[in-house]
């Protein structure tokens, strides 16, 4: 059974991409006459893609899926970057409707073992919806005591937008928060109709005006790696590079690690925190612990 729940979002994404272009950008002559709407007209996009205006209008109205033969042309005509292209392909992908209820996600055993082998590197395992499935002691010392948070509330996006202490850790909170929203948007496009995602987005939209604005804006940003700056109450300012590694056995789980260049104050700060939390009898924790 084909799922149609994502089609309105696909149509809105196409409209927003079209609005950001001008005739000059795509090689069309400009008449000089004022336009009623920003960007290209539907008929101009349809002409460049090679389909009828009626067919293209149905795509933007969320009334039809994007044919595979049209996807590559849309990427070219709308000048999509890599992240936007990936997002379009996720939204356009057909497939079986997923069950509306899923069992509670558990950290993959191999990722747990990796956490145990990273005593001087803060590391988390994030699952669907950015739920925090597991962490090592240094991640807890760096970010927050995850044990104090009820399991059903243990979610990175929720903490970033609703926990004042967690939020204040980030010197560049807005950058990290926008990246978080973009990540959630990609997750939502992969599993349209997911009730857990819908509940989380609804909760955060009510709780935080920035989240509400950024979610509505649908901006796509790079999500694979980056830099974050923290102000830790014990070790001061830290500049850390983060990267995420996808679990092959379960692609919905990602190991997120933070590192610093050796010899820098940030690296020394991590080593201090690691020594402060060092306990050979304290393994990595997970949501079921």
From TrEMBL:
Pfam families recorded: HTH_31, MLTR_LBD
Organism taxonomic ancestry: Bacteria, Bacillati, Actinomycetota, Actinomycetes, Kitasatosporales
GO molecular function: DNA binding
Protein name: Helix-turn-helix domain-containing protein
Position of the signal peptide: none
Residue intervals of the HTH cro/C1-type domain: 39-85
């Amino acid at each position: 059974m084909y799922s149609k729940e994502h089609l309105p979002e696909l149509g809105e994404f196409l409209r927003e991409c079209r609005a950001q272009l001008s005739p000059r950008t795509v090689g069309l002559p400009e008449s000089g006459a004022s336009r009623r709407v920003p960007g290209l007209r539907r008929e101009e996009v349809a002409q460049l893609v090679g389909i009828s205006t009626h067919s293209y209008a149905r795509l933007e109205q969320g009334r039809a899926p994007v044919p595979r033969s049209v996807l590559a042309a849309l990427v070219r005509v709308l000048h999509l970057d890599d992240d936007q292209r990936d997002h379009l392909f996720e939204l356009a992908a057909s497939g079986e409707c997923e069950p509306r209820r899923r069992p509670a996600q558990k950290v993959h055993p191999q990722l747990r073992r990796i956490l145990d082998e990273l005593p001087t590197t803060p590391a988390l395992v994030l699952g669907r919806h950015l739920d925090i499935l597991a962490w090592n002691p240094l991640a807890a010392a760096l970010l927050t005591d995850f044990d104090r948070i009820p399991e059903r509330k243990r979610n990175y996006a929720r903490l970033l937008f609703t926990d004042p202490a967690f939020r204040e850790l980030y010197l560049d909170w807005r950058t990290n928060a926008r990246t978080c929203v973009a990540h959630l948007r990609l997750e939502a496009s992969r599993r349209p109709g997911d009730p857990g995602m819908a509940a989380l987005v609804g909760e955060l939209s009510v709780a935080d005006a920035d989240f509400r604005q950024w979610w509505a804006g649908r901006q796509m940003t790079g999500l694979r790696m980056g830099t974050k700056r923290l102000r830790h109450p014990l070790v001061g300012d830290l500049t850390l590079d983060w990267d995420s590694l996808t679990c092959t056995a379960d692609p919905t789980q990602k190991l997120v690690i933070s590192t610093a260049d050796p010899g820098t104050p940030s690296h020394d700060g991590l080593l201090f925190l690691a020594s402060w939390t060092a306990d050979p009898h304290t393994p990595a924790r997970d949501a079921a612990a």
